[in-house]
Amino acid sequence: MYGGGGDAGASQFNGAGFMPSQAGNAGGGGGSGKKNYDSKQQTLRAVTIRQLHEALSSHKDDTLMLDGKEMTNITLLGKVLSSNEQGLTYGLKIDDGTGRADVKIWISDDDSEVEKQRRAEWRPGMYVRVHGHISNFGKSQDVLAYNIRPVTDHNEVTYHYLQALHQHLHLTKGGGAGPAMHQEQGGAYGTPPIAAGGYGAALPVPGYDPHHGNSALDSELMHVLNAPDARANDCGVSIDDLLMRTGGRYSMVQVREACAKLADNGRLYSTLDENHFKTCE
Amino acid sequence: MSSSLDITCPSPRVNFQSLGQFVGKRVTIVGSVVGVDGNTLQLKTSDDQVVNIQMQGAVPQCKVLEVQGMVASPNTVTEESCCPFGDNFDMANYNELCKLVNNPAYRTMFHP
């Protein structure tokens, strides 16, 4: 499962917290009663109708998969083509340019005027944002919405497509938590986690090769540590001082990694704690 | 199992550059309205070229318009429906999106 602690790239698709307050409304929609969902697996994916179609036509059991990941909650964006009210559901047909989808939302007789007014805003020709899930209710698979709202700033149209593309690429090409974590553990043995790559990983800094270290930074750090004042101090030099005395041209991460590497190579050692160093030379 | 999704009549998002590939097909095109002549509307696309839109109905009063329609020729589109996109729509971003949507590496997410 992704969404592991350190992977910021994936955590934004983790819809944890979205479901609990909404589950009541969707209770009749099937699905939610069958499984005891783990909130960590409650993903929210931005998808195109075409992607959703692909996921639906290939799925076998209860789980809906896209890009190799289970999909629970989805968000769609499209232009309303038509609307209709059928008993307890209100239906919209939306078109996002990649396809058309029927979206349903539960309504009740005692809906307030405000609710009715909200529905009146979902007029044909207008763009709406839909948050929902797929239900296998009856014989058809429907997009069952938790919420529908009109789009007022149309930059959201551009945004939705880019978000769908971003999530697709993130899940298919990079940033998977598994391999990245392995790499980070490897870091203790001298390979900095920067090599993990992928979207969620730290950005490599230009000119800094994690495999070979940065000889300029290494020699500057050693120069500072070999200076008489640093040798004279029993505690050595703090990492903050090292950062400052290398002239602010390096990041804290770079300095810390260079120190770890120099320590591995036996050129310096940590004193009070892992933030203070002294030279071995 | 029947599905409530239909992908048989897509209308891909295009800029002027990709419009030519879709003659005889439906597209979605967003542009700034630069002129109106009877039923014909001149739309400046996100990549700064002018396309003639044959409007079916009334011409909406707005700065940025999204048009869905059939591509009659590489610079003419017959409108089927349209939607005003307000006046703070970022054309540069949208143009980048059009390029990505029609990039062979990603287009399967959006159209056949």
UniProtKB/TrEMBL annotation, chain B:
Keyword Cytoplasm set for record: no
GO cellular component terms listed in the entry, alphabetical order: nuclear lumen
Highest taxon listed in the record's lineage: Eukaryota
Transmembrane intervals: none
Pfam families: Rep_fac-A_3
GO biological process, alphabetically ordered: DNA recombination; DNA repair; DNA replication
Gene3D superfamilies on file: Nucleic acid-binding proteins (2.40.50.140)
Gene Ontology molecular functions: DNA binding
Localization per record: Nucleus
Keywords: Nucleus
InterPro entries found in the cross-reference section: NA-bd_OB-fold, Rfa2
Primary localization class, coarse: nucleus
Entry similarity comment: Belongs to the replication factor A protein 3 family.
Name of the protein this chain belongs to: Replication factor A protein 3
Organism: Chlorella vulgaris (Green alga)
Higher taxonomy: Eukaryota, Viridiplantae, Chlorophyta, core chlorophytes, Trebouxiophyceae
